[in-house]
What we know:
CATH architecture of the largest domain: 3-Layer(aba) Sandwich
Helix content: 25-40%
CATH superfamily of the largest domain: Periplasmic binding protein-like II
Radius of gyration: 20 Å
Distance between the termini: 39 Å
Strand order of the largest sheet: 1-3-2-4-11-5
Largest sheet: 6 strands, mixed
Oligomer: single chain
Amino acid sequence: MQTRRFLAFVSAVALAAMALVACGQAAPAAAPTSAPAAQPTSAPAASAQPDAVRLQLKWVAQAQFAGYYAALEQGYYAEEGLAVTIQPGGPDIVPEQVVASGQAEFGIDWLASLLATREQGAPLVNIAQVYTRAGMRQLSWKDSNLASPADLKGKKVAVWFGGNEYNLLATLSKYNLNKDSDLTLVQQPFDMNLLLNKEVDSAAAMTYNELYQVLSAGHTIEELNILDYNAEGTAMPEDGIFVSADWLNADAKNKEIAARFLRASFKGWAFCRDNVDACVEFVLKQDSGGVMTREAQAWQMQEVNKLIWGDPIDPNTKIGYLEPDLFKFAADTALQFGVITQPASQEAYTHEIWEMATK
């Protein structure tokens, strides 16, 4: 299966894409956030000027990315001799396109999207898998009796397109449901109104965002059927850090820069694991549109920590390490269910940068 968002790679990369990314709040007009001008205090290489790099987020600023903002605010990037600009995402921004076109050195997106993009010829490589558990779910009302994916036949099912539909498509394929004839797929907007108003039978939700939206609208978990892709065996890793292999191999220094970036980012995520309230404040500082609430970001921070560190939280988790078995599972699942048409190459990920960052 190939989506139109990736065909942009065939001709020059275009930032205006059909991506509809999963994180359901409207995008505020946020400017890129840059690292403070502090000189590095413990950079591995003596340098008068920090190395300037850009991180392209998958979506707008929120606790989904709190570890990177923490690394910025706590000075971890500056300590590594980096001047990092964090570029918010949005509905018209595809991180793979931004990185492949050289408009950012680092990007955040889901592994299935990276594999599909590589198949179109973009030389992207995962250097760290920060989320090792999938937060995406499919929600329906308990009284609709959609207790199994098989029950979606004949129903209206909302999902985000542009790379976030792969878990659903893999699950439909597992249950021998044709996405074009056995049900009606609906492009999901940035809120849960379609489900709340019962305009669709099922809708996508992230545990750290849209699920909270439904609960904060006055509903309870007991009112919902929740399809967990992890339990179905069709969940693929989310929110990994990737770069262009061309950039990574263009200069030996770039591998050192990437390792320093990972080291500082991991420290930022560890800080958010242990300091939820502080990281919520870091994120709220980015809210130029006034659309965030402290309560929603606190919920999100707690749920995101579970996707990184486990539930219950295990501080000994090897953050960022992409287990080979997890990659094989994701690649096999992507191939089996049509996300990609050829077996994924082992070159889609590397441990080299992670090992440099954690030695």
